[in-house]
Amino acid sequence: QTFLSLKPWNILPITIGGIVAISLGLLTSVYVATLHENDLWFSNIKEVEREISFRTECGLYYSYYKQMIQAASIQQGLHGLVYDNKTESVRTINILERMNVYQEVFLSILYRILPIQQYLEPVYFYIYTLFGLQAVYVIALYVTSWLLSGTWLSGLLAACWYITNRIDTTRVEFTIPLRENWALPFFAVQIAAITYLLRTHLQPVQERLTLIAVFISTFLFSLTWQFNQFMMLIQALALFILDCFDMLPTAKVTWLYIIQISGLLLVCVLQFFNSMILGSLLISFNASVLIARTIQKNLKKGGLLNRLGKLILHVLLVLCLTLLINKFIKKILNLESDEHIFKFLKAKFGFGATRDFDANLYLCEEAFGLLPLNTFSRLSDTLLFYVYVFVLFLMTVAAVIVAFRNLSGSNQVQFMEKMEEYTVTLKPDAAYNLIHTVLFGCLALSTMRMKYLWTSHMCVFASFGLCSTEVWKLILKCIHLYTSQRVSTIITCWPGIMDELSELREFYDPDTVELMYWIKSNTPNTAVFAGSMQLLAGVKLCTGRTLTNHPHYEDKNLRERTKQIYQIYAKRSPEDVYRILRSFGTEYVILEDSICYERRHSRGCRLRDLLDIANGHIMDGLGENEPDLKPSLYPRFCEEIKKNLPSYTIHFTRVFQNKTFHVYKLTKHK
């Protein structure tokens, strides 16, 4: 029913719930903004320190916002992005095609046309927008839980859990420009819209408006994050599973498949027909499902064994079609943009060891490892994990029974009477959110970086289960045992939040600040710098100098280039390193002691070890080596260059050093 047709006594709780949702969203934004300010003393540090605080790829993305604002006009700024020759030396690339930076373009244009320049610095306009999106995120989580349970108290609990488990639900306050911080609020809005769409008895107008909301949120999610296709593939898989077991309306599932494809294709057009999007598994999978459905028209008819047989054939047909279509597209377009991801997945799940440098670079990063066990202890401190597991178990058992009933087509009266206890799982919106949380939970368990997609939805799912009247019918006796504990937990969490807000720190990285000032003062604007991906992103943002490589890794040529540049940390001759660097137009190379003498990773995972293995050389230090690895004829370049031997000084001259960095200028030989 529409809002206008509601009775006054129904409007009141909706109004109160809406006010609470908006209030909690705004409070979350203020909370994370305060944490960011307290952690860095952002308002008091210099501009270069603010920019250095945007570490690794965050600095790279922010640099394009800065570039657009500093451009003479919007048209010139856009031209500079489409024909960029500063991000990768000796190459002109289209930033709008390669990277998801339309949000930076939009914000920079907005900043230029709004009359706020006198009151608000560009950096604050940027970070406040991101913190503002956290309000959208929390409101979307709140609404999803409210829709599922039927009470806004469920949304209140979801939002409170999101805030009290902030360490595991978001990292926006210290990785502000990261793509996921732009994308996840829109993903949460999309889930809320899908949850509403899957309700029964929607009016045609409501359904159409909801489909528009799903499309817009899907499009914005896809536009703002390069990993959109992989997240939506998992979502499509959830829809496919539920459709196979007849737990969702087929017509609505079809619309969702079409929306995913059309949203992604629209992004593809805006990104100048980005090859990684065209070759995505999502497009191949969704197309395969729609084709397979056309071929197998009587998929949902017959008895249990008949249905199971058809289902197995359907799954095999979809799988084969997906692989064939994807292989065909990649062959026709000669696509290799995402091959490093599949190499990484192959090695991660034990399908053979690899010496591939790119795959090992991911495998050795903690963020791409398994989810640490201490995550669960933190989530248990607020009782979130206990409630989540209990609700998940209950709903999964019920969903299995419902799926079995749907496949068998049983209409026995006794069976139906038993099933009345599980009506909650018959609701398509609850069934979707169940499979969604299971699949994204598996993703989070396998890859820590992706936990934020799961933990935020965990808050929604647990609060829904706790506040839903249908679930209460089954767990009333169990739940009241937790009531006093839940109250004491909120009381315990409140001082922790206040302690975080009162803790004051300050940004401190004098060596990097000194390096950036030196580069700006002592090198020409056209100078080309080589070094680690993470540091060079900061060099571009703080100094505007040209780079040889950068952290946006979704390009095969860049990956090969980075591996070549990183030979500065391998056991190579000075002549080899000089030749490689000059081939990319390098004029200055920055060596970092933290990489050359790295101790953060164990043996076999240090950057120098990955390079040694890729080059077929024995690794440094005590420990085993693979039998076919051989000693290098040369010492490690980053160590040996510091001895100022003639074979090195003929090619490299040290022009700057401090406790962390060593900068060498390359000699220009005739």
UniProtKB/TrEMBL annotation:
Localisation: Membrane
**Pfam families the UniProt entry points to:** Dpy19 (PF10034)
- The record lists the membrane-crossing segments as 12-33, 123-148, 182-198, 210-227, 263-291, 311-329, 383-404
Q: Which UniProt keywords apply?
A: Glycosyltransferase, Membrane, Transferase, Transmembrane, Transmembrane helix
Which GO terms label this protein's molecular function in UniProt?
mannosyltransferase activity
Q: Gene Ontology cellular component?
A: nuclear inner membrane
CDD domains reported for this sequence: Dpy19L3
Q: Does the keyword Transmembrane apply?
A: yes
Superkingdom is Eukaryota
Is Oxidoreductase one of the keywords UniProt gives this record?
A: no
Tell me the InterPro entries matching this sequence.
Answer: Dpy-19/Dpy-19-like, Dpy19L3
Provide the topology term for how it sits in the membrane: Multi-pass membrane protein
PANTHER family in UniProt: C-MANNOSYLTRANSFERASE DPY19L3-RELATED, DPY-19-LIKE 1, LIKE (H. SAPIENS)
What family does the entry list? Belongs to the dpy-19 family.
* Protein's UniProt name: Dpy-19 like C-mannosyltransferase 3
